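Lab notebook: predicted structure, single chain.

Context: the supervisor wants predicted structures on file for every construct in the current expression panel, including those that have not yet been purified. This is the next one on the list. No modifications to the sequence; it matches the entry in the shared construct table.
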Amino acid sequence: MTGLASLGLTAEQEQLYRRLLRDPGVPLDPSCPAVTELRALGLLDDALNAAAPAVAVDLLVRRRIEHTQRRLAELSLAWDVLTELTEEHRSGRPVQMVEHLPDGPAVHRRMRLLLHDEPGEFTHLKERAVAHDGGDVPAGGLLARGLRSRTLFSARALADPGQEQHARARHALGDLHRVTTEPIRRLAVVNRAVAFVQADPADPAAGALQIRQRGVVAMLADVLDGMWERARDLDELPLSPIEQQVLHALTRHDTDDAAARALHISVRKLRAHVADLMARLGAATRFQAALLAKERGWL
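Prediction complete. Output recorded below exactly as produced.
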């Protein structure tokens, strides 16, 4: 294939365009199909003047690229079909690119099944570190098998002290946790291949949609990656009011009894707060905790 035919022109279109380049004043019939087609391609203007060769070739190349991209997009659907057929062959049941799962337990079972077969990567976005419907998906066995797990939860959940404690415990096991102040919609992505989104944003009990369409899953995975980068590590969280009071009381009083009385709490409660602060700071002693707190600007 030579000449402009390689860029999509028919022989008649190319012959007419070349003729107009050689003889711009040649009379044309505006109703001629080749004239109409060249105008639609942008190779003729309204006055039926031929576009300059550089402009014409650029237009044709861009059109060819767009056509190729559309064909590639169509061909990419073959991979979706392959994924679907492979899963049907593995599971022995029909697989849909978008499937509704009725409730939380069904969603968790499906996630665990996918991760059991291939414990690669799991990213989870949710309101609370401890889910209302219970059951953390990346169980210890999956983490031990090499699962890379990340969980993002809302900063609003930190009003409940138990949420941070749970998040830290999971983080220590390898299910990395971060806190986000961005709006939350429950979302999970398994192995960057399957996504789970809340079926009805207004009704948490409505279950979830399992999505296997590659383009949609890739977009959702990118959204989660961006939120993860913008989120805060647990060690970067600001102190709660009571933690700030406990930290300052320790610097002003010589004994736990005196510090507890100043804060109007029990000695046992004070020591529990001190232990949490030391763990959060990674300090072995109270003196080390004070130094680390000062370095972070907490004192």
